[in-house]
Amino acid sequence: MKYALEIENLCYAYPDGTRALHGITLKLKKEKKTALLGTNGSGKTTLLYHINGIIPAQEGLIKVKDCPVCKEHIRWIRQEVGLLFDNPDNQLFSTTVFGDVAFGPRNMGLGAGTVEKRVMQALQRVGIEELAGRPPYCLSLGQKKRAAIAGLLAMQPEIMVCDEPFSGLDPAVAGQFRDILDEQKKQGRTLIYSTHDVDLAYSWADEVVIMKEGQILENGTPDLLRDESLMHEACLQLPMLAELFKNSDFKPRTIEQASRILSGNEDLVKGNRSAVDWA
């Protein structure tokens, strides 16, 4: 099985008649980090909610690991597809942080000992094990976000779907969460996340899906984000590094790659490409 997710002609309209998705057809590969990229209102969140079955498809078909997302299979789907909401207040509802993180594993039918082990491991991984007994409403936004992330980790889903996963996090914590998600990918999990941060998508994603007004403009590798006409059509700016190097032969996607190109190489700065080999 090559694909973690397959979508065919998915359409959705809100109760007021607003069309949110227009004939989405998409296949996402297993064990990849895929970024859904677009401005606010492009349909990213609505699409993510369909993957987990929170929003049922009105038209079209969604398959997770070849299984249709429908009422009949919803319990299995939600074990396989873990969802992280943009706003943690939509995810946290228990009287304690421990209870919130334990909710998913308990509903999977796991024993008490296994649930406790998973919860404490997840809380330790995000650095808030000391908050296990605290009520979520007493936490800061960053702490709530960490608690929600821990709930996702405790379920150990094969597919991790994250809606704006780094919003509300300071740079250090955001970096820690990226490291956690990279660990999950190395363990064979598939990551799908929404963002309007073009620099993040350019440097961190394996695949990108560019959306506008409920439609897919293009999907493929992050190299697409160097296409000025495509980015203009999507109402997005070029990534910073793509803008900086657009008139050169170099295509660094990370600060580390760019530093290797520029640092201490006067000949390279003058355009002598042979002066360094960073690939």
For the secondary structure, the number of strands is 10
Q: What is the name of the CATH topology of the largest domain?
A: Rossmann fold
CATH architecture of the largest domain: 3-Layer(aba) Sandwich
Summarize model confidence as the mean pLDDT.
Answer: 90
Detail the poorly predicted runs.
272-279
Class by helix and strand content? alpha/beta
Largest sheet: 6 strands, mixed
Give the strand order, joined by hyphens, for the main sheet: 6-7-8-3-9-10
Q: Helical segment tally?
A: 11
Outline: globular
Q: Give the C-level CATH assignment of the largest domain.
A: Alpha Beta
Order of helices and strands: EEEHEEHEHHHEHEHEEHHHH
Provide a descriptive summary of the structure in words.
- The chain is 37% helix and 22% strand.
- It is an alpha/beta fold and 279 residues long.
- It folds into two domains: 3-96 and 157-237, 3-Layer(aba) Sandwich (Rossmann fold), CATH 3.40.50.300; 245-279, no CATH class.
- It has a six-stranded mixed beta sheet with strand order 6-7-8-3-9-10, with helices on both faces. Strands 2-1-4-5 form a four-stranded antiparallel beta sheet, with helices on one face.
- A hairpin with a 2-residue loop joins strand 9 (207-212) and strand 10 (215-220).
- Helix 3 (97-107) packs across helix 4 (112-126), helix 3 (97-107) packs parallel to helix 5 and helix 4 crosses helix 5 (141-155).
- The longest helix has 16 residues, at 171-186.
- The protein is globular, with a radius of gyration of 20 Å.
- 39% of the residues are buried.
